[in-house]
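Go through this one:
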Amino acid sequence: MKINIDREKLLTALKTVQPVAKEGLLAILGNALFVAESNKLTITATNLDLTIKTTIDCEVEQAGAITLPIKRLNNMVKEMVKGNNVSIEVKEDDSVLICSRSSKFKLLGLPVKDFPPIQEVDGDPLFTIQQKQLKVLLYHTSYAASKDETRRVLQGNLLSIDNNEITSVATDGRRLSLDKICDAGTEDKKIDMIIPSFTVTELKKVLTDDGDISVWIIKNNVALKIGDTFVISKLVDGVYPNYRQVIPNGLDKVISVNRENALSVFKRVSIISDGDNNSVKLTIGKNEILVHSSVAQIGEAKDIIPIAYTGEEITVSFNPDYIIEILESMKEEEVFFCFDNGNSPCIIRNMSNFMCVVIPLRLQ
């Protein structure tokens, strides 16, 4: 194999696939597979649960394939002079010469036969939507997924396709975030899949605001095509809990809040809270929300969020990190806090389809 390739294109491709490569028990998993043919270079990395494969243009002088330690190669290319080409040439002993201007490296590869087989993707996709639509769904919901390894089915995002709607849900048992796309172009399709959190994290890095994303379900895998990049992941086994039954109805106290102002207040007041006492108290009264945090060995903080409200006073306590993550995931200027009383779950939502149910903490 012998190729010439633009440094910036190569570096972008390496950054896309590198996070997946983890050496672990198998040395080959620290390597990426490089396949050059027809003036294209395809780079693939896998950890057996998640695979990312991307294809870029290059000048192929001799077609071929090799696996290389991707982290080390990425560091090499990153330090090369910008605006130049990189040449990669594989020798018979699987050693590789990597050159750019005056920089010359020799890197030892591993045989292609040792690289794990990758799930093939063929046939028509299950559905195709705009990248931006899926990106918004995942940013609105993924932070709420459980980190508890004993609750495997909650360690990911539910993506539910039901006729012409796509719904994304994540929950850790203390909060539940939900967003959906209406008129998604998925008529006559009905399927639920749980995408693991580590896959969602990498997927969010690849998604852009332009172009489409196509989705396939292959056995217990999901494959997503984003431009010239494939993300192929195992799905979480199991049945997602019935999230609909925990969404409260009849929350008649709806309070409009300026999102950026509220976010700033929660960030300031939460400085006083700590890991063992991570809570803030909200006192919702006439035209203001008083946000208060007090820790005996640290001190206290108070701040006010102006609102238009003249109803009965409500006192409620939340983990401030939950509220901050919700508000940070949103872009709207105006958001809504919906209550029944201080002991019942609260909903934070926008004017569209996003909502997050938050269970309050017990008041001390």
User: Anything to note?
Assistant: The helical segments are 7-17, 70-79, 131-141, 197-206, 259-269, 320-329.
